[in-house]
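Lab meeting, item 3. Inverse folding demo.
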């Protein structure tokens, strides 16, 4: 287990990190919009969605126990959060590793015309982003509970936020290792347009820029907590400072490797 002294940031190829939001993660529905579009409803693979659901339910229970002054019980439940969050990413890696390449565009158009509103399962990029969002929710929720936490409760929060941030950094390094470099801006605009029209699932270069706003949200939550906390211990402040450093580095890594997709003219 990690101590409260400081989170050791993963050695990403860039010198910067990320932050998380300050409220308990809401329970999203089984279906959600594709990260690279604003219309398509997705069904996530069960190997990921089941574990995401377990993580979110355990996170909600742990949050209530911390708020009710039961830090020891919350610490036990946070073990479930960490275990299921890690399992969700293992499931996403399996999907990334085993999903075959999409068929040529003409075959996808032909298949779409012959089918009657089939279920749209998330591709590798959207599936990975679902777990990245889960990691963001966990990290942000821990930030929201640090004010007033101490002893057993603060140790459990520290272990959980460190794991969430470290596993996110590891996930980003893995995604970069298996996905091609971001194409030129004009090609990315064209790719986004074709994906929004249903010509294949969103790719990592289109989906990953959506992570930057989550990191900004985490950084805002950290800075806000440090600024207005009424019962923040010295250990809690050190934990927030370490998280701020790591999340800032993560954000720099994301912006370097997956810059925002340019807006269409």
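The presenter then showed the designed sequence:
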């Amino acid at each position: 287990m990690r101590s409260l002294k400081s989170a050791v940031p993963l050695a990403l190829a860039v010198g910067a990190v990320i932050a998380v939001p300050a409220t308990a993660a809401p329970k999203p529905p089984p279906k959600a919009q594709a990260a690279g579009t604003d219309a398509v409803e997705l069904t996530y693979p069960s190997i990921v969605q089941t574990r995401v659901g377990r993580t979110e339910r355990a996170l909600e229970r742990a949050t209530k126990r911390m708020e009710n002054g039961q830090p020891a019980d919350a610490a036990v439940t946070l073990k479930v959060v960490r275990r299921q969050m890690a399992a969700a990413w293992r499931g996403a890696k399996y999907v990334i590793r085993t999903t075959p390449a999409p068929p040529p565009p003409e075959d996808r158009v032909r298949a779409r015309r012959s089918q009657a509103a089939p279920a749209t399962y998330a591709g590798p990029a959207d599936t990975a982003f679902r777990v990245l969002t889960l990691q963001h929710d966990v990290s942000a929720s821990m930030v929201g509970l640090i004010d007033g936490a101490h002893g057993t409760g603060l140790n459990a929060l520290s272990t959980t936020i460190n794991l969430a941030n470290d596993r996110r950094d590891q996930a980003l390094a893995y995604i970069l290792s298996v996905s091609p470099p971001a194409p030129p801006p004009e090609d990315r605009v064209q790719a986004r347009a074709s994906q929004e029209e249903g010509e294949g699932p969103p790719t990592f270069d289109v989906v990953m820029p959506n992570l930057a706003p989550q990191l900004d949200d985490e950084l805002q939550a950290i800075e806000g907590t440090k600024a207005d906390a009424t019962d923040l211990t010295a250990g809690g402040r050190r934990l927030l400072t370490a998280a701020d450093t790591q999340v800032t580095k993560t954000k720099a890594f994301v912006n370097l490797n997956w810059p925002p997709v340019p807006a269409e003219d």
